[in-house]
Design brief:
The complex is a heterodimer of chains A (340) and B (266). With 340 residues, chain A is an alpha/beta fold. Chain A has helices at residues 43-50, 68-71, 73-77, 94-103, 112-120, 133-145, 163-178, 190-196, 214-220, 234-242, 276-282, 297-306, 328-335, and strands at residues 3-14, 17-28, 32-36, 58-63, 79-82, 151-155, 182-187, 199-204, 207-213, 222-230, 247-254, 264-272, 286-292. In chain A, strand 8 (199-204) and strand 9 (207-213) form a beta hairpin. Chain B is built from 13 helices and no strands. In chain B, helix 1 packs across helix 8, helix 6 runs antiparallel to helix 10 and helix 9 packs across helix 10. Classes of the chains: A alpha/beta (340), B mainly alpha (266). Chain A binds chain B through residues 14, 48, 51-55, 72-74, 76-77, 79, 81, 83, 85-89, 91-92, 100-106, 143, and chain B through 1-3, 6-7, 10, 14, 104-106, 108-116, 263-266.
Chain lengths: 340, 266
């Protein structure tokens, strides 16, 4: 049993409206699997099916080797779940709420709740109705993590959390995975999944568009390039850029002489794919400034959402594995001097 | 730490405020109504006043039996104000137990834990029963305490039987609310179903008693099954009590089976 979740042909109809059109995916044990997609794509419905909160219309699901429909309470004890729309009771404290969840799930290591609460900077003795959205989300995370389950199913886990707490959350995810747990999480923003996930499924209108690694997505993604150079004519710079595979949207202009050295050229372009050929060409220029931005995975994913091909001049799809994907990033960073 | 019946204990502890509020309401009603009996029931002027009322009205309000202590208690407390308060309490709790919980989004997270849906319905229904029993026991004790000072002259055995029917009648509305809530996942349908059982039962009784032409309506009235023979005066019809409790049990079972089969929170 190396797979924590196996979903085959999962369909879900609400009345006549089918919201999941036959999903197939598998999540390896000990990995973080992210699902991204716009609101209404079916992320929450998929997760609810895993927890047996709603029942599939067709297809099969195996969670930790068991069918959630039949497995009963024993299986759910091994899962920690954070709903996408977290609703908590109002007239109680976080501590009492967690005691109740411990009673219907558990067992929780003594002191572990307080330890997590401290990490998340959450006051457990406040009335829950007085908690901010972020603090409620912390409580939701706490109840999902506290019994150290084998599988974490987290629907939009970082929603409402400030960046500092998001870092704590990512650390908690890593620790859980290091301890052998599997994490299945969703988001409508990629940056969230990108940090945590080993593999990413992109869901659109109830169908999986692609399952890919974050690295492969990164290779497919488009980077913004901007630089200034001296001593080369604008048309020559344009021609030089045109020779580099994956470069598009080239705009070159000569800057006015005042305040700049004579013959200063500013160029902008986009790059998809590998960085190395670009760097080789740029080495011929006398650069005074260079910015090669982090790939905007969000944009890469959006092109997948809308169904158009990724970036112009780029042959490989995001699903293809590219060994040099990871190597290209430091090269870009090395020279990325000033960020605007 | 493993707890016994965690959902039951939670339902009880979560509702202690409302239980206390309904208990205070019932206490206030009993303390207002029953001590008035010596100046109303035994008073010939009051009897004249009631005789002057249209007979349809006195029948509808059960005021035709108001001249005796047990009849007065039956008509005012068990038949009217107590019935009203207990039904409201029971319907509110029943509708909130599953339908309200689902509508507020809380049920999803509960079900994601190590509980079964049948367990959720049964433990919460049990909590509803216990609260109804507690309020009914309070009513029993208060009437018992006032029996002598208010010159009611109620037989304790008859009082016990009447309280059992009082509880069973309220429970019927409450379980109807719970069942409808579990079927639909909406609190408002639970309240509608529970209120329908209570109100229609009352109305069918009131109308059915008006003339033999419409007395078939009495057969449809749980209110009449329970109170048709004036249990405070004459002792309980235990068959009616078992019947009411049996229907409640069936409603709980239907609610559990319905929740077991459907999607939650959609």
């Amino acid at each position: 049993m190396t797979q924590a979740i196996v979903v085959e042909g999962l369909r879900k109809k609400f009345g006549h409206r089918e919201v999941l059109h036959g999903l197939d995916f598998a999540v390896e044990r000990g990995t973080v699997f992210g699902v991204i997609g716009p609101n209404g794509a079916g992320k929450t419905t998929t997760m609810r099916c895993l927890l047996d909160i709603i029942r599939p219309s067709a297809g099969s699901i195996a969670v930790l080797g068991e069918d959630p429909r039949r497995a009963g309470t024993g299986l759910r004890r091994r899962i920690g779940y954070l709903p996408g729309e977290l609703h908590l009771e109002n007239r109680t404290t976080g501590r009492r709420m967690l005691e109740h969840f411990e009673a219907i799930s558990g067992p929780v290591q003594p002191g572990y709740i307080d330890q997590l609460a401290e990490r998340l900077d959450l006051d457990l003795d406040r009335q829950s109705r007085k908690l901010s959205k972020g603090n409620k989300q912390k409580l939701g995370l706490l109840q999902a993590f506290m019994h150290q389950p084998e599988l974490l199913v987290l629907d939009e886990p970082t929603s409402g959390l400030d960046p500092l707490v998001q870092q704590v959350f990512h650390a908690m995810v890593r620790e859980a995975v290091d301890g052998g747990a599997t994490v299945f999480l969703s988001s409508h923003v990629l940056s969230e999944v990108q940090q945590a996930a080993d593999a990413v499924a992109i869901l659109r209108d109830g169908e999986i568009v692609t399952v890919s690694t974050v690295e492969a997505l990164r290779t497919a993604a488009v980077r913004q390039l901007r630089f200034t150079s001296t001593g080369t004519e604008a048309p020559d710079v344009g021609a030089l850029l045109g020779r580099v595979p994956g470069v598009a949207n080239i705009a070159v202009r000569e800057l006015p002489a005042d305040g700049h050295a004579a013959g200063t050229v500013e160029a902008t372009a986009t790059l998809s794919g590998h960085v190395q050929p670009l760097v080789q060409e740029l080495a011929r220029l006398n650069l005074t400034d260079l910015v090669l931005e982090e790939p905007d995975l969000e944009e890469a994913v959006l092109t997948l959402y809308t169904g158009t091909s990724p970036a112009p001049g780029h042959g490989e799809g995001p699903g293809s594995n590219n060994a040099s994907g990871s190597g290209s990033r430091p090269a870009a960073r090395k020279e990325g001097a000033h960020r605007a | 730490m493993p707890k016994i019946l965690p959902l039951f204990t939670k339902a009880l502890t979560d509702s202690w405020r409302s239980t206390l509020a309904w208990a205070l309401g019932l206490t206030a009603a009993i303390m207002l109504y029953l001590p008035l009996y010596p100046s109303i029931g035994g008073n010939s002027q009051m009897q004249d006043l009631i005789n002057a009322l249209p007979p349809e009205m006195t029948k509808a309000l059960n005021y035709d039996q108001i001249a005796t202590g047990p009849g007065y208690t039956q008509a005012t407390l068990f038949g009217l104000i107590g019935f009203l308060l207990m039904s409201m309490a029971s319907v509110g709790w029943g509708a909130a137990a599953v339908g309200g919980d689902e509508e507020s989004g809380l049920l999803e997270l509960t079900l994601a834990h190590s509980v079964t849906r049948v367990q959720v319905v049964l433990e919460r229904a049990f909590a509803l029963i216990v609260r109804t029993v507690v309020l009914s026991a309070l009513v029993f004790l208060l009437v018992l305490v006032l029996n002598r000072p208010s010159e009611l002259g109620i037989d304790v055995g008859h009082l016990f039987g009447a309280v059992v029917l009082f509880a069973a009648l309220a429970l019927l509305s409450g379980t109807a609310a719970l069942c409808a809530g579990a079927l639909t996942g909406r609190k408002v349908y639970g309240i509608a179903a529970g209120a329908a059982v209570a109100v229609l039962g009352y109305v069918f009784n009131a109308v059915g008693r008006q003339s033999p032409d419409v007395d078939w309506l009495l057969n449809l009235s749980p209110y009449h099954w329970a109170y048709g023979n004036s249990p405070v005066t004459n002792g309980a019809d235990w068959g009616a009590a078992w019947g009411l409790l049996g229907i409640s049990a069936a409603l709980i079972a239907v609610g559990a089976a319905a929740l077991q089969r459907r999607d939650v929170g959609v």
